[in-house]
Amino acid sequence: MEHGVNEILRDKLFKREEQQTLRNLTIPEFNQKDFYSNDYLGFTQNKNIYQKAVYYIQEDFRHTLNGSSGSRLISGNNPFIEDLENQISRIHLAEKSLLFNSGYDANLGFWSCIPQRNDTILYDELIHASIRDGIKLSNSKTFAFNHNSADDLDFKAGLVQGNVFVAVESIYSMDGDFLNTDIVKVCKHNKWNLIVDEAHACGITGQNNLGMFNYLNWQDDCFARIITYGKAFGAHGASVLGSKLLIDYLINFSRPFIYTTAAIPHQFATIKASYDYLLRNNAEQNSLNLNIESFNAFANQLGLSKHFIELNESPIKALLPGNKQFTIELSKEIKEQGFLVKPIFSPTVSEGRERIRICIHSFNTEEEIISLLITINQFITKKV
Q1: What is the pLDDT of residue 182?
Q2: What's the angle, vertex CA 171, arms to CA 166 and CA 173, rounded to 5?
Q3: Domain 5-30+282-383 - what CATH class?
Q4: What span, in angstroms and rounded, lies between the C-alpha atoms of 12 and 340?
Q5: 3.40.50.300, 3.30.300.20, 3.40.640.10, 3.40.50.1820: which CATH number matches 56-278?
Q6: Among 272, 194, 237, which Cα is nearest to 106's?
Q7: Is the distance from CB of 318 to CB of 309 less than 8 angstroms?
Q8: β-strand 33-34 against 120-124: which pairing, if any?
Q9: Which of 114, 216, 252, 289 lies 20 to 30 Å (CA to CA) from residue 36?
Q10: How far is Cα 202 from Cα 198, in angstroms, rounded to an integer?
Q11: pLDDT of residue 384
C-alpha cells in the first residue's frame, strides 16, 4: 500500500530526528560569543555603513523607498543600480557585472542557462549547494572531480564534449581551504571556461580585499566570477562578473533574474555603502588577520591541529571531532560555555565528515579565542 504525502514527509522528518540531524529555526543569542556567522568583518553591525546606506536611499530611491515595484526588466530598475554595477565592474576589473537578489539566485541563474545541451560541466565535489542546484537545471553532461585535485580535473579531459565549464570556489565554505591554483593552470592549458565563486573570499582576501583572483591578477583567467554580499560585506545579494556578452545573455535568458522582483532599495544601498567603507578602511581586515593568526597559533600550542582540516589563513575552521555523536556532544558543551558554533551534518557534508564549523571575526577578542580553544581541548582530552 502506498504511503500518502503526509506519511512520507513525516517519515523523512522522523528519520532526521532519530539521527539527531533535524534542522530547526533558532533565534540568535546575542549575549553569547559569535563564532558561527559569516559576518567576518562585523559589517552587519557597522553604523557608518548603515548611515551611508540610509543616505543613498533618501537621495536615490525617493520614488521607491520601501520596495522596487517589479522586476528590473519592467519597473524595478534604477540609475543607482546601474551605476553600482558599473562601479563593481571597475573595482573588480571586469568588463561588466550584473546584480542578483542573492548568491543562490546568481548561481542558479548562471548555471541553468549558460552551459548548453552538448557542453560539459566539471565541478569540485565540495562545491556549494546553490551551484549543484543550478547544474541540475542544465542540460549539459556533468562530472565531479576530487576536491581541489588538479590531477583529477585534468584526467576528466577524456570525458568532456563541447564547451567545458569548471566550477570551483576560492575559499570552500565548509572546509575553509583555498582553491588549488594548479586548477587554474589546467583550465588555461585545456582552454576550459573557469567559473569561480568568491563568496567567502571577497572582502577579506589579499591586500586589496577584493577576492583571490583580483589579488593574484587572475581575473582575466575566468569566464565568470560570482561575488556575494552576505558574508564579509554584511549585506545581501550577489554579482556575476564577466564580459558584456555574458551579462547581456544573462539578462535575456537567466530565469532567476528575469522572473523575480528586484531587491529592495536598502539592499543595493548597503552593497554600495559596504564597498565605500571596504575600499577606505583596513582596520577590520587587520584585526581579522591577527585573530586568525592567534587562533592557529594557540590551536597548535594545544595540539589541536590534528583535529582541524586545515589551519590556514582562512577565517573558516573545520573541526572534525571524530564521529557524529561526539560532534553533537562537543557542540553542546561549547554552547554551554557561551560560544555560538554550529555542528554540520549530512547532507551538507558527507557522512563521516561531520564537523563543527568555526568562523573567526574581526570583533572576536583574543581572550574569547583562547577560551573557546581551551573548552574544545578540555572536552576532547576528557573524552579520548
Answers
A1: 98
A2: 100
A3: alpha beta
A4: 28
A5: 3.40.640.10
A6: 237
A7: yes
A8: unpaired
A9: 216
A10: 6
A11: 65
The amino acid that residue 60 corresponds to is D
CB 337 within 8 A of CB 298: no
Residues of the chain with pLDDT under 70: 1-2, 384
The whole-number pLDDT of residue 130 equals 95
pTM of the full predicted structure?
A: 0.94
CATH 3.90.1150.10-classified regions of the chain: 5-30+282-383
Q: Where in the chain is the domain with CATH 3.40.640.10?
A: 56-278
Grid coordinates belonging to 239: 554579482
Cell numbers for 245 = 556578452
Three-state SS for the chain is CCCCHHHHHHHHHHHHHHCCCCCCCCCCCCCCEECCCCCCCCHHHCHHHHHHHHHHHHHHCCCCCCCCCCCCCCCCCCHHHHHHHHHHHHHCCCCEEEEECCHHHHHHHHHCCCCCCCCEEEEECCCCHHHHHHHHCCCCEEEEECCCCHHHHHHHHHHCCCCEEEEEECECCCCCCECCCHHHHHHHHHCCEEEEECCCCECCCCCCCECHHHHCCCHHHCCEEEEECCCCCCCCCEEEEECHHHHHHHHHHCHHHHCCCCCCHHHHHHHHHHHHHHCCCCHHHHHHHHHHHHHHHHHHHCCCHHHECCCCCCCEEEECCCCHHHHHHHHHHHHHCCEECEEECCCCCCCCCCEEEEECCCCCCHHHHHHHHHHHHHHHHHHC
